[in-house]
Amino acid sequence: MKTYYNPEDLKKFGKIGELQKPLADKFFDYYGEVFAEGALTAREKSLIALAVAHAIQCPYCIDAYTTDTLEKGCDEEQMMEAVHVAAAIRGGASLVHATQMMNKINEISM
Amino acid sequence: MKSLKALENPIAEPAFELEILEQSKIDSFESKLDQIGLFPLKPTQIEILQINMGKMCNQVCKHCHVDAGPDRKEIMTPETMADCLEVIRNHEISTVDLTGGAPEMNPDFRWFVEEIRKINSTCTIIVRCNLTIILANPKYHDLPEFYKKHRIEVVSSLPYFSAMKTDSQRGNGVFDKSIKALQMLNAVGYGIPGSDLVLNLVYNPSGAFLPPAQEALQAEFKKKLRDKFDIQFNSLFAITNIPISRFLEYLVRSENYEDYMEKLLQSFNPIAAENVMCRNTISVGWDGFLYDCDFNQMLDLKVDAPDSQHIADWNMSSLTSRSIIVNKHCFGCTAGAGSSCGGTTA
């Protein structure tokens, strides 16, 4: 193994069932249902997935959902806005903890 | 930007394109058809005559399967058009689909349309108009009126409702001109609810991926074009890029070729295979030779009907009993929801 991440491995995702089929089947059935048209459109779900892929920094997911959002008719501007949503939440999640820091400062300061 | 032919790129040669298709690792299209009982592929009924009026075009789009452009001089002569008129006169052709290049750049385009209308007052005449031609020269400014007069159905490419994506595929400034041309078409009644003047748009992906669901994309196009530019249209056709000519060159150059072919194979849809457009269409080349479709035309794969390979030798019975020539590029028409000159097929 030369690298931990190989783009070709994405195509092998379905093969995880070779070692534990019942759980894999349940996961892929669930996965398929999650991304089907529902109260949210498949397009909206794809953009959410793209944003989450960046939040969790999963190269496979970024590869898959960049293609998928394009195939759902999204353009680059919409895709980048979705990534900014992920970045804003991640950044905000750090910054909001500053309130704890401020609480502590107050607690121990004269 | 020049055509592949002018650049002397080997992919401009059909034999070289066929070699690249042959080298792909994916299964043959014949074997895939065989698995679903469709091989050999036979026509259903010949209803559509798609006529390529020439390869000359005012645009040089990156994905063009015709390799059209200003440097292409191949153009249909009035004699070949007269042969086409004979076929339209003598056979039940319900749709005449005029394409190119920019068909309007053929000097005999208007005469040909008028003659078709004289012969058949009710058939559908489609013109695949690239929109910018309407603004390219004052002599084309009245095209919307001309289309209206002859009740032509206008089909026009607009890859997206934003300039960035449209211009990256079709050339700088194409989006703004296309918007202006669409507004001119709307102004004479095209695409307006209640009007019988039909204006359809064509989306095709700007890269190595498949088109979105046609219906959802149409709804978004309608909303965006109406809200931003006050433009209306009838239907959106979502078309898959076929791996030939300039798109094939892009796939090879960007190292997306094999993955794209694999994606087409993985997305094979038997229903789309049953409904492929070559089953009810004959494609006529600028020089009068006959093909199963526009893509086979570009690959120089003439119809498998030895006594009816040219419009002047049209033999309906030979053409309807022929076997359609297929190759790996055909996976483009059978992927996902299917693809044809009229949009999805499944």
CATH topology of chain B: TIM Barrel
Multimerization state: heterodimer
Number of domains of chain A: 2
Order of helices and strands of chain B: HHEHEHEHHEHHEHEHHHEEHHH
Mean pLDDT of chain B: 97
Rg of chain B (CA only): 19 Å
Structural class from helices and strands of chain B?
alpha/beta
Radius of gyration of chain A: 19 Å
What is the helix tally of chain B?
A: 15
Strand order of the largest sheet of chain B: 6-5-4-3-2-1-7-8
General description of the model:
The complex is a heterodimer of chains A (about 110) and B (about 350). Chain A has helices at about 20-35, 40-55, 60-70, 75-95, 100-110. Chain A is mainly alpha-helical and about 110 residues long. Chain A has 2 domains: about 1-35; about 40-110, AhpD-like (Up-down Bundle), CATH 1.20.1290.10. In chain A, helix 2 (about 40-55) runs antiparallel to helix 3 (about 60-70) and helix 2 crosses helix 4. Chain B is α/β, with parallel strands linked by helices and about 350 residues long. In chain B, about 35% of the residues lie in helices and about 10% in strands. In chain B, a hairpin with a 5-residue loop joins strand 7 and strand 8 (about 290). In chain B, helix 3 (about 80-90) runs parallel beside helix 4. The model of chain B has no long low-confidence stretch (mean pLDDT about 95). Classes of the chains: A mainly alpha (about 110), B alpha/beta (about 350). The interface between A and B is medium-sized, with 11 and 15 residues.
